[in-house]
Amino acid sequence: MRARYAITLTIGILSCIVVAYAMDETRTVSVLSFSLRYAVPLILAAMVGIICERSGIINIGIEGQMLMSAFAGFFGAAITGNLILGTMLGVGTGMIMGAFLATGAVAWKMDQIIAGTIINILATGLTSFFYSQGYVLPAITPTLRIPGLADIPLIGPVLFDNGLFTYAAILTALVLWVLLFKTIWGLRTRAVGEMPGSADTSGVNVQRMRFINVTLAGGLAGLAGAYLSIEAASNFDRGMTAGRGFTALAIMIFGAWNPIGALGAALFFGLANGLASQLQADEVIDIPQQFISMLPYVLTIVLLAIVSGRVKPPAAVGKPYEKE
């Protein structure tokens, strides 16, 4: 039933896009490109939540992981004069924050909500305290235009003429789906999130599996944070993640803890935001910018209300495992 609704919604949205493209090609491509760029950090952050919760760990700290990584990525790139090194510092910072969460939630068996909240508070405090003005990036991030594919009407300029972060986000969702449902790693990951006792009995080290997965997932949060400060804004501002980590959790739930479902939900969020921004720019609607900024959070509430009770999280999520 849920799949049928998703297919119907997708067909409806695609039909509207095709009609809009026929009416105004340039404006439609602009809206879709903006929507995809807006969705990039949401896609990556949702993948973080999926890996963690499929492993049995609730990650409320995605927001803090992204914020710390945005800080490290921007100032790392600005100080070293190297965008690649800055991105690597952002990813590394995300992994460190992931290891911090794994230590508290897995090794020390802390309450997972509290552990994630600590990360958010810590990130907000540290980035505000060490924030400094006057730094600029050495260059803008390059775009990669794929010859041939970029010339396809509508799809080409939207999907195949982007920065590397955008390609990485889409590829991450596709690869994660394959890894989760078609590999031994995925089988073990889902096992420790659903029935850790049975996984332990079959020889899987539950604690180690959870620790590694949460740490590696932090790297994706780091990539999302680096995207925000290095490519999307080319700057760092206090609190620049603006709730995207929490929005990603809602996207994860709406996507039923499935990478492809979460990818579609993130793109839907991006499209809604892009459409609202374009309507305001064209003065079709005359409302304050603050209401446009509220749109993702309103959508979060609406989507969670729709799927409430219809999707089920992994059975062992949020429960520390005690080896018998």
Characterization of this structure:
With 324 residues, this protein is mainly α. Helix content is 73%, strand content 2%. The protein is built from 13 helices and two strands. It has helices at 2-23, 25-54, 62-80, 83-107, 112-130, 155-159, 164-182, 184-194, 196-201, 206-232, 244-254, 259-281, 289-307, and strands at residues 143-145, 161-163. A two-stranded antiparallel sheet has the order 1-2. Helix 1 packs antiparallel against helix 2 and helix 2 (25-54) packs across helix 11 (244-254). The two termini are 39 Å apart. The model has no long low-confidence stretch (mean pLDDT 89).
| Overall spatial form | globular
Tell me the strand order in the biggest sheet: 1-2
Major sheet details: 2 strands, antiparallel
Care to count the β-strands? 2
Write the layout of secondary structure elements.
Blueprint: H1 2-23, H2 25-54, H3 62-80, H4 83-107, H5 112-130, E1 143-145, H6 155-159, E2 161-163, H7 164-182, H8 184-194, H9 196-201, H10 206-232, H11 244-254, H12 259-281, H13 289-307
Antiparallel strand pairs: 1-2
Helix pairs in contact: 1-2, 2-7, 2-10, 2-11, 2-12, 3-4, 3-5, 3-10, 3-11, 4-5, 4-10, 7-8, 7-12, 11-12, 11-13, 12-13
